[in-house]
Amino acid sequence: MTVQVTPDSISEPESVSDPLDVIIVGAGPCGLAVAVALKECGLSYAILDRGCITESLTHYPSYMTFFSTAERLEIGGVPFTIPEPKPTRRDALAYYRHVVAHHGIGVRQYEDVTDIERAEADFTVHTRTRDGREDRLASRAVVVATGGFGEPNRLGFEGEDRHRRVIHYFKEPYPFFDQDVLVVGGGNSAVEAALDLYRNGARVRMVHFADTLDRGVKPWVRPDIENRIESGEIPMHWGSRVARLGTGKATIVEESSGEETEVANDWVLAMTGWRPDAALLEGLGVESDPDTGIPAHDPATMGTTEPGVYIAGVIAAGFNANKIFIENGREHGARIAAHLASAVRRSRRPNCL
């Protein structure tokens, strides 16, 4: 007998289970740190991610080396042991999966949180998997740890979204061999992408709205890019922006003079950063500062102005993703767990205070 599966039968939500203590949205390093801290306090939890474990790290350049040392990226009391002083992307991806296995954290991967509703003291979290199956989970608190990769900072020229050659991730240089590439930005991502492209056969030029490289460029990388710019091997357009794209060309405008320069172009790598997705927080009534994008919260507990709603990781930095990274965002889990344990199970879990 053949059973036909319809879209309705796939997407019908399951019934709401008994409330968990906490639901964590986001399985990046900081979300995982929250899960470990909650587990150590004996609190029940679920952790969900619309992608894989540490999804954001998978979008980093394939051969990237972290600025931080390994011990500053450790979470959950698990040593991050490598022979080199600074870990690579590959090291970090392996390490955080080891943490998940070591602590027995059951991450619900590829399960998107579509909505969170408050019902008196509890929350109902609506989810959808990649195959369309919907579910509803109940919890007494929620932690939003969705990171800073919600929406890319757009370049702002008319028709930008129509051009498939504008991309916001750089993994490796090989697809761009013998191509004319504009790298937009002046931070680490832009500088390292430009150098990697230059050394692997792409014709590279850079565009930056400021008149100097960002202060945070890695000190061992800065002399290399400065020499390439000074020699003209990588042309730099300071104080400029991309004005528009045409067939096989791009127009760059210098903001102070309005002077336009037309250059050959096949790709635009917009290494201009990302903004967090605050939709879940906004739906729960948590306000964010319009200038900084920082959600209203208490840094001591990471609790927001809405009872039972917490934030962790880069989302707490708002628009300035460089303000919080793994090395300081990993501390949020212990603050959240301590506050919840104190409020919910103080008499039963005194060791968590």
Structure in words:
This protein is of the alpha/beta class and 353 residues long. It has 2 domains: 7-151 and 274-352, FAD/NAD(P)-binding domain (3-Layer(bba) Sandwich); 154-270, FAD/NAD(P)-binding domain. It is 23% helix and 24% strand. It is built from 9 helices and 20 strands. The chain has helices at residues 7-11, 29-40, 55-58, 89-103, 188-198, 222-231, 279-283, 326-329, 332-345; strands at residues 22-25, 45-48, 107-108, 111-119, 122-129, 134-139, 142-144, 151-152, 166-167, 180-184, 203-207, 236-237, 240-246, 249-254, 260-264, 267-270, 274-275, 297-298, 303-304, 309-311. The strands form 6 sheets. It has a 5-stranded parallel beta sheet, with helices on one face. A 5-stranded parallel beta sheet has the order 9-16-10-11-12, with helices on one face. A hairpin with a 2-residue loop joins strand 13 (240-246) and strand 14. Helix 2 (29-40) runs parallel beside helix 9 (332-345) and helix 5 packs across helix 6. The longest helix has 15 residues, at 89-103. It is globular, with a radius of gyration of 23 Å. Residues 1-13 have low confidence and may be disordered.
Entry keywords:
353 residues; alpha/beta; FAD/NAD(P)-binding domain; 2 domains; 9 helices; 23% helix
If you average the pLDDT, what whole number results?
90
CATH superfamily of the largest domain: FAD/NAD(P)-binding domain
The biggest beta sheet reads:
5 strands, parallel
Strand order of the largest sheet: 3-2-1-7-20
Strand content of the residues, in percent? Answer: 15-25%
The CATH topology of the largest domain corresponds to FAD/NAD(P)-binding domain
Return the string of H and E elements: HEHEHHEEEEEEEEHEHEEEEEEHEEEHH
